[in-house]
Design brief:
Length: about 325
């Protein structure tokens, strides 16, 4: 009887080891020939879309993988995040998230079926970007101080477009209003590109946007940059002053981009994706491609990105509350 129990115990250990090996096998050869879907929570043409396609294309080229960008826009980018949280933790559905939807969206959209700190797995930090305040080249506003003076003379008359309520871009606009002591009228859009189009056509006075979303039209001479919101000038737009330089000392608002998967994503897959993304971010050609879009590439280890993300999530609650930003 004892021998039989021992025999069953040995068999159980063996079966458990085999099951463990089978569970680990997909991670060891991941992704194999199966395509990886990279969910992009904003429409085509915006900063998140552009960066997502750079990373998807380069992962495909460098590793002979098939990584496909899939736009799932809406609700300030939270629809795409919701879809990612519902995916199976296999590594074949990942999402390019950012401060806007992953962190701020949680505090601004009521009834979301997920908590980012519990339902997402941080994979790799990709880049960060300042926010830019710009206007059409045909606009009467030549400097940010022109905007401030006009806004003080006629509160609420000047409009600015953003990629949506509750995004980091919207909050940057709200914080700018508070710092400058002015009242502007916010016009939310479903993504950066529609806001850009309406700015160029004169339907709104100002564009508040990520640099990647606006830099193409700036270089084309159709959009006049007035200021960036980061503490330092953008390396892509070194001639554009910061808001802090123009008199609002200490003003510093930027956004970040990173890859996430659903909760319980196996650590070997997370490590593999993080390693390959960081290799790309060390490549000069990839760095230049990201910088050409107005963002700054920044690699982090899995542990560092996890720490960074959770700290930002914790800190952002008070920022959202103090900004007064709300979903209308």
């Amino acid at each position: 009887m004892i021998q039989q129990v021992l025999r069953f115990g040995v068999m159980a250990v063996a079966l458990g080891a085999a099951a463990g090996a089978q569970a680990q096998a997909p991670a060891s050869d991941y992704p194999g020939s199966k395509p990886v879907r990279m969910i992009v929570p904003f429409p085509p043409g915006g900063g998140t879309d552009i960066l997502s396609r750079i990373i998807a294309q380069k992962l495909t080229e460098h590793n002979h993988w098939t990584v496909v960008a899939d736009n799932r826009a809406g609700a300030g980018g939270t629809i795409g995040i919701t879809e990612a949280t519902k995916a199976q933790p296999t590594g074949y559905d990942i999402v390019m998230g950012q401060k806007d939807n992953v962190v701020l969206g949680y505090y601004l959209y009521k009834g979301l079926p997920w908590n980012p700190a519990k339902d997402l797995t941080p994979i790799a930090h990709v880049a960060y970007s300042p926010v830019i305040i710009a206007t059409a080249e045909t606009s009467k506003f030549k400097t940010l101080n022109d905007v401030i003076a006009a806004a003080k003379a006629d509160p609420g008359k000047i409009t600015y477009g953003s990629p949506g309520n509750g995004t980091s871009i919207h909050i940057a606009g709200v914080l700018f209003e508070k710092a400058a002591g002015v009242k502007l009228t916010h016009v939310p859009y479903k993504g950066s590109n529609p806001a850009l189009v309406d700015t160029l056509s004169g339907n709104v006075d100002l564009l508040v946007s990520s640099v990647p979303s606006a830099i193409g039209q700036i270089k084309a001479g159709k959009l006049r940059p007035l200021a960036v919101t980061s503490a330092k000038r953008s390396s892509s737009l070194p001639d554009v002053p910061t808001v802090a330089e123009l008199g609002m000392k200490g003003f510093d608002v930027s956004t970040w981009y990173g890859l996430f998967g659903p909760k319980n994503l196996p650590a070997p897959i997370v490590t593999k994706l993080n390693t390959e993304v960081n290799k790309l971010l060390a490549d000069k050609g990839v760095q230049e491609a990201i910088q050409a879009q107005g963002a700054e590439p920044q690699a982090m280890s899995v542990a560092d990105f996890d720490k960074f993300f959770h700290q930002d999530f914790k800190d952002s609650k008070a920022i959202v509350e103090s900004s007064g930003a709300a979903i209308q």
